[in-house]
Amino acid sequence: MNSNKNNLTAALIVAAGRGHRFGGPLPKQYTDLGGKMVLNHTVSALLAHPDIDMVRCVIHPDDQSLYENAVSGLSILSPVSGGATRQDSVRLGLESLEDQNIDKILIHDGARPFVSLSVIDGVLDALNDHAGAVAALAVADTLKRGKDAKITQTVSRDGLWRAQTPQGFHLKDILAAHHKFAGEELTDDTQLFERLGLEVILTQGSHDNFKITTGEDLMRAENLLAHHTETRTGMGFDAHRFDKGDFVTLCGLEIPHDFGLKGHSDADVALHALTDALLGAIGAGDIGQHFPPSDAKWKGAKSDQFVQHATSLMRERGGEIINVDLTIICEAPKIGPHRESMVKSVANILGVDQHRVSVKATTTEGMGFTGRKEGIAAQAIATVRLKTLKA
Ligand code: MG
């Protein structure tokens, strides 16, 4: 996010509905889809677009805690509460984004998690020359009008489109339109522009960009997700030398010892190995590239921020952690008594359940530098589920 830039681009995700048509115990945007809530997929998809500077959701005030769960770890603006109708909700969301140097605004349904970069591109590009744009699909099926389950007419599909979201506008125009038509029943935002006689361009939507409304849609989404993700593994290794001191920092915890560990940061060898494993899984370089030891700002730094940085890079790519496995290699201190709290600490830093974290320890039976008690080494493996990148 670059707050100095003028003419920023924002996305407003409408997630204030209670999903009565869906029939499940939770509103559809908070339903689990492949281990994350539907809304998490949707927010991640918009955050992943390089031209979108900020994302905000409009939510139902009763859903605050569901929402916080859904977007945990994502860099998103704080949510605003919606109104009685979708139109009210959108207006409140738009008003909250005034005075932020925003030009282009995308309005998107919280329950359309598979919006692709190219669908977003189409809408944003059209806004360079036009007042509005909407992702849409030309109707392919033959259309029938019917009464009492009998055909009364074949309707020409010529020129008929199915409107999806995102729908894109220039913020000041769409806000003015919402104020002008406040209180009227309109089904989508482009309709406001139609009423004003403003041009709205139809851009290429996608069949995958469907809205999850029914249980059948959810099954379709699960199948699609299984075909759109891949599992990646990264490994990391690190070693730090013993130095004067009376504790070592391992997995974010200070463990009493006769020595400390020497390093530019807090020398948390386990978290350094873990950071490299996470970076490795997404092909994003290594810890030294992201946090150069030559930079004074990392002197004495707590290493949980290195792990958190790698984790947020992964999440920005739509990824999630399946599991991490750490091995700490030393003769002393004894790791066993601290293993449980280390698992807790690592799970907490990563923002995942403890069952996704393993911490193990071994010695090298007196051999090598760890055997001679010169220092501590650590290995880590991280397995993550990532969106498959389309060429
Ligand atoms: Mg290190």
How would you describe this structure to a colleague?
By secondary structure, this protein is of the alpha/beta class. The chain folds into two domains: 219 residues, Spore Coat Polysaccharide Biosynthesis Protein SpsA, Chain A (Alpha-Beta Complex), CATH 3.90.550.10; 158 residues, 60s Ribosomal Protein L30, Chain: A. Helix content is 29%, strand content 29%. The strands form five sheets. Strands 5-4-1-6-10-7-11 form a seven-stranded mixed β-sheet, sandwiched between helices. The chain has a five-stranded mixed β-sheet with strand order 15-12-18-16-17. Strand 8 and strand 9 form a beta hairpin. The mean pLDDT is 92. The structure holds magnesium ion. Magnesium ion binds next to strand 12 and helix 8.
Task: Give the SSE string.
Answer: EEEHEHEHEHEEEEHHEHEEEEHHHEHEHE
CATH class of the largest domain: Alpha Beta
Number of domains: 2
Coarse structural class = alpha/beta
Helical proportion?
A: 25-40%
Report on the biggest sheet: 7 strands, mixed
Low-confidence stretches: none
CATH homologous superfamily placement of the largest domain:
Spore Coat Polysaccharide Biosynthesis Protein SpsA, Chain A
Strand order, largest beta sheet: 5-4-1-6-10-7-11
- Proper CATH architecture of the largest domain: Alpha-Beta Complex
Put simply, the count of helices is: 12
Fraction of residues in β-strands:
25-35%
Bound molecules: magnesium ion
CATH topology of the largest domain: Spore Coat Polysaccharide Biosynthesis Protein SpsA, Chain A
End-to-end Cα distance: 25 Å
- Number of β-strand runs: 18
Using the CA coordinates, give the radius of gyration.
Answer: 26 Å
